[in-house]
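Appendix B, record 7
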Amino acid sequence: MKVGLLALQGAVGPHAEALRDLGATPVEVRTPEQLADVDALVVPGGESTTMSKLLDTSGLAGPLAERLAAGLPTFGTCAGMIVLARTVLDGRADQRSYDAIDVTVRRNAFGRQVDSFEADLDVAGLDEPFHAVFIRAPFVEEVGPGVEVLAAVDGHPVLCRQGPILVSAFHPELTSDRRLHAVFLTLIP
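Structure tokens (predicted):
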């Protein structure tokens, strides 16, 4: 199975390594043609407003909206969570979000870069805690009725799923634990 990695900006390499470890074929996506040729997509961390602008200038904004609306399994991490959200708080007025998952996300919710942290999370469906790396992380302020909250920090959802969409406020690719990438791969028909 070919899993696209939105390779406009952000941490693509560690996601590619995690996917290869699990037997998937990672493919960097920078053009609409590359997006059309993948079975699923990872939207990595990075800077969400920059990513939004690059989606427009690359010609990917429209094709991505179409693939998401058609049910493309997608895993958004950190900035990827923001890009996939219904609503973004503390974002720029021209920032694009795709309404792929019914959540309201607050950018940089845990604070600035110096407030970055790591935490062991109890994740629904996993037997042991997942060690999560939060870097200028968002969190979910509100979830819609079809969203399953899989993990939270201080009462704030940080890992959610709705249908074929999985989002995390943290960076699972920065650890050697492949369980969340494995969960994502189960969402691909």
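Remarks on this record: Helices lie at 13-21, 32-36, 48-58, 61-69, 79-84, 179-185. The chain has a mean pLDDT of 94.
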